[in-house]
Specification:
By secondary structure, this protein is an alpha/beta fold. It is built from three helices and nine strands; from the N terminus they run E-H-E-H-E-E-E-H-E-E-E-E. A six-stranded mixed beta sheet has the order 4-3-2-5-6-7, sandwiched between helices. Strand 2, helix 2 and strand 3 form a beta-alpha-beta unit. Helix 1 crosses helix 2. The radius of gyration is 16 Å and the shape is globular. The relative contact order is 0.21. The structure holds inosinic acid and magnesium ion. The site of magnesium ion has 3 residues, from loops.
Protein backbone atom coordinates (compact mmCIF):
# COMPACT_ATOMS: atom_id res chain seq x y z
CA UNK A 1 0.00 0.00 0.00
CA UNK A 2 1.34 3.49 -0.80
CA UNK A 3 2.11 5.73 2.14
CA UNK A 4 1.39 9.47 2.20
CA UNK A 5 3.66 11.44 4.50
CA UNK A 6 2.38 14.98 5.16
CA UNK A 7 4.90 17.50 3.82
CA UNK A 8 3.14 20.85 3.34
CA UNK A 9 -0.17 21.60 5.08
CA UNK A 10 -3.12 23.39 3.46
CA UNK A 11 -2.62 26.31 5.90
CA UNK A 12 1.00 26.72 4.79
CA UNK A 13 -0.08 26.60 1.14
CA UNK A 14 -2.82 29.19 1.75
CA UNK A 15 -0.43 31.51 3.57
CA UNK A 16 2.18 31.36 0.80
CA UNK A 17 -0.35 31.86 -2.01
CA UNK A 18 -1.81 34.87 -0.23
CA UNK A 19 1.67 36.45 -0.02
CA UNK A 20 2.57 35.68 -3.63
CA UNK A 21 -0.85 36.92 -4.79
CA UNK A 22 -0.19 40.25 -3.06
CA UNK A 23 3.28 40.48 -4.61
CA UNK A 24 1.93 39.74 -8.11
CA UNK A 25 -0.87 42.31 -7.64
CA UNK A 26 1.77 44.90 -6.76
CA UNK A 27 4.26 43.97 -9.51
CA UNK A 28 1.61 43.92 -12.27
CA UNK A 29 -0.36 47.02 -11.20
CA UNK A 30 0.36 48.89 -14.43
CA UNK A 31 0.54 45.81 -16.67
CA UNK A 32 -1.88 43.70 -18.67
CA UNK A 33 -1.66 40.43 -16.74
CA UNK A 34 -2.74 37.04 -18.03
CA UNK A 35 -2.19 33.89 -15.97
CA UNK A 36 -1.58 30.80 -18.08
CA UNK A 37 -1.84 27.56 -16.13
CA UNK A 38 0.03 24.51 -17.34
CA UNK A 39 -2.40 21.58 -17.33
CA UNK A 40 -3.17 19.50 -15.53
CA UNK A 41 -1.10 19.82 -12.38
CA UNK A 42 -1.65 23.55 -11.86
CA UNK A 43 -5.46 23.53 -11.84
CA UNK A 44 -5.97 23.75 -8.07
CA UNK A 45 -3.05 26.16 -7.58
CA UNK A 46 -4.50 28.39 -10.35
CA UNK A 47 -7.92 28.41 -8.73
CA UNK A 48 -6.46 29.59 -5.42
CA UNK A 49 -3.88 31.99 -6.92
CA UNK A 50 -6.34 33.87 -9.18
CA UNK A 51 -8.52 34.60 -6.13
CA UNK A 52 -5.56 36.10 -4.24
CA UNK A 53 -4.74 38.54 -7.04
CA UNK A 54 -6.61 41.81 -6.50
CA UNK A 55 -5.90 43.53 -9.84
CA UNK A 56 -7.86 42.86 -13.05
CA UNK A 57 -6.43 39.95 -15.01
CA UNK A 58 -7.46 37.17 -17.36
CA UNK A 59 -6.73 33.45 -17.22
CA UNK A 60 -6.09 30.74 -19.75
CA UNK A 61 -4.50 27.28 -19.88
CA UNK A 62 -1.92 25.46 -21.94
CA UNK A 63 -1.62 21.68 -22.12
CA UNK A 64 1.70 19.97 -22.73
CA UNK A 65 2.72 16.34 -22.59
CA UNK A 66 6.32 15.24 -22.64
CA UNK A 67 7.41 12.06 -24.25
CA UNK A 68 10.79 10.74 -23.19
CA UNK A 69 11.85 9.16 -26.47
CA UNK A 70 15.31 8.04 -27.36
CA UNK A 71 16.65 11.59 -27.24
CA UNK A 72 17.56 12.80 -23.78
CA UNK A 73 15.86 16.17 -24.22
CA UNK A 74 12.44 14.57 -24.80
CA UNK A 75 9.69 15.63 -27.18
CA UNK A 76 6.73 17.73 -26.23
CA UNK A 77 3.23 17.74 -27.68
CA UNK A 78 0.76 20.56 -27.02
CA UNK A 79 -2.61 19.12 -26.03
CA UNK A 80 -4.18 22.54 -25.53
CA UNK A 81 -3.20 25.98 -26.78
CA UNK A 82 -4.29 29.25 -25.16
CA UNK A 83 -7.61 30.62 -26.55
CA UNK A 84 -6.94 34.25 -25.74
CA UNK A 85 -4.80 36.65 -27.75
CA UNK A 86 -1.35 36.94 -26.11
CA UNK A 87 0.19 39.63 -28.28
CA UNK A 88 1.43 42.47 -26.03
CA UNK A 89 0.07 40.78 -22.88
CA UNK A 90 2.11 40.24 -19.72
CA UNK A 91 2.10 36.47 -19.41
CA UNK A 92 2.63 34.77 -16.08
CA UNK A 93 3.01 31.03 -16.59
CA UNK A 94 1.66 29.05 -13.64
CA UNK A 95 3.21 25.61 -13.15
CA UNK A 96 2.82 22.96 -10.47
CA UNK A 97 6.45 21.80 -10.36
CA UNK A 98 9.57 22.85 -12.23
CA UNK A 99 11.72 19.71 -12.12
CA UNK A 100 14.21 19.08 -14.96
CA UNK A 101 12.86 22.24 -16.61
CA UNK A 102 12.64 20.59 -20.04
CA UNK A 103 8.85 20.91 -20.39
CA UNK A 104 8.98 24.50 -19.30
CA UNK A 105 11.70 25.52 -21.72
CA UNK A 106 9.59 24.24 -24.63
CA UNK A 107 6.48 26.01 -23.33
CA UNK A 108 8.39 29.30 -23.04
CA UNK A 109 9.75 28.92 -26.60
CA UNK A 110 6.20 28.36 -27.82
CA UNK A 111 4.69 31.31 -25.92
CA UNK A 112 7.45 33.62 -27.23
CA UNK A 113 6.23 32.95 -30.78
CA UNK A 114 2.90 34.58 -29.81
CA UNK A 115 4.65 37.93 -29.11
CA UNK A 116 3.62 38.67 -25.52
CA UNK A 117 4.85 41.88 -23.88
CA UNK A 118 6.61 39.88 -21.16
CA UNK A 119 6.86 36.32 -19.82
CA UNK A 120 7.44 35.35 -16.19
CA UNK A 121 7.18 32.12 -14.25
CA UNK A 122 5.27 31.24 -11.11
CA UNK A 123 5.56 27.74 -9.67
CA UNK A 124 4.04 26.05 -6.65
CA UNK A 125 7.13 23.87 -6.18
CA UNK A 126 10.66 24.58 -7.37
CA UNK A 127 12.34 21.17 -7.33
CA UNK A 128 16.09 21.14 -7.83
CA UNK A 129 16.93 17.43 -7.79
CA UNK A 130 17.04 16.85 -11.54
CA UNK A 131 17.25 20.38 -13.00
CA UNK A 132 18.88 20.15 -16.42
CA UNK A 133 18.35 23.57 -17.91
CA UNK A 134 18.75 27.05 -16.50
CA UNK A 135 15.33 28.49 -15.76
CA UNK A 136 14.72 31.72 -13.95
CA UNK A 137 11.74 31.15 -11.64
CA UNK A 138 10.23 34.54 -10.74
CA UNK A 139 7.70 33.44 -8.10
CA UNK A 140 8.04 30.19 -6.17
CA UNK A 141 5.91 29.09 -3.22
CA UNK A 142 8.06 26.21 -1.99
CA UNK A 143 11.49 24.80 -2.72
CA UNK A 144 12.20 21.09 -2.59
CA UNK A 145 15.53 19.33 -2.98
CA UNK A 146 14.25 15.84 -3.80
CA UNK A 147 11.46 13.30 -3.39
CA UNK A 148 8.19 12.63 -5.17
CA UNK A 149 5.14 14.50 -3.99
CA UNK A 150 1.39 14.26 -4.63
CA UNK A 151 -1.83 16.08 -3.71
CA UNK A 152 -3.20 19.59 -4.28
CA UNK A 153 -3.31 18.93 -8.04
CA UNK A 154 -0.08 16.90 -8.23
CA UNK A 155 -0.41 13.32 -9.41
CA UNK A 156 1.22 9.93 -9.54
CA UNK A 157 -0.11 8.13 -12.63
CA UNK A 158 -3.03 10.59 -12.69
CA UNK A 159 -4.11 9.73 -9.14
CA UNK A 160 -4.05 11.61 -5.82
CA UNK A 161 -4.64 15.09 -7.35
CA UNK A 162 -7.63 15.42 -5.01
CA UNK A 163 -5.67 15.14 -1.76
CA UNK A 164 -6.12 18.38 0.23
CA UNK A 165 -2.44 19.12 0.94
CA UNK A 166 1.01 18.02 -0.29
CA UNK A 167 2.40 14.62 0.69
CA UNK A 168 5.60 12.69 0.14
CA UNK A 169 4.64 9.49 -1.67
CA UNK A 170 6.28 6.27 -0.53
CA UNK A 171 5.47 3.36 -2.82
P1 LIG B 1 10.07 18.82 -16.09
O1 LIG B 1 10.42 20.10 -15.38
O2 LIG B 1 10.05 18.93 -17.56
O3 LIG B 1 10.95 17.69 -15.61
O4 LIG B 1 8.58 18.38 -15.74
C1 LIG B 1 8.03 18.71 -14.58
C2 LIG B 1 6.68 18.06 -14.51
O5 LIG B 1 6.80 16.72 -14.05
C3 LIG B 1 5.83 18.79 -13.49
O6 LIG B 1 5.09 19.82 -14.08
C4 LIG B 1 4.99 17.69 -12.94
O7 LIG B 1 3.82 17.52 -13.71
C5 LIG B 1 5.86 16.45 -13.05
N1 LIG B 1 6.55 16.18 -11.76
C6 LIG B 1 7.85 16.36 -11.46
N2 LIG B 1 8.12 16.03 -10.18
C7 LIG B 1 6.94 15.63 -9.65
C8 LIG B 1 6.53 15.19 -8.33
O8 LIG B 1 7.32 15.10 -7.37
N3 LIG B 1 5.21 14.89 -8.19
C9 LIG B 1 4.30 14.99 -9.19
N4 LIG B 1 4.62 15.41 -10.43
C10 LIG B 1 5.93 15.73 -10.65
MG1 LIG C 1 2.94 19.60 -14.88
Amino acid sequence: MPEFIPLISKQEIDRKIKKIGQQISFDYKTKDLILIGVLKGSFIFMADLTRQISIDHTIDFIGASSYEGTSSTGQIVFTKQPDLELEGKDVLLVEDIVDTGNTFLKIIEFIKLLNPGSIKICTLIDKHERRKVKINVDYSCFSLEKGFIVGYGLDYNEKYRNLPAIYDLKL
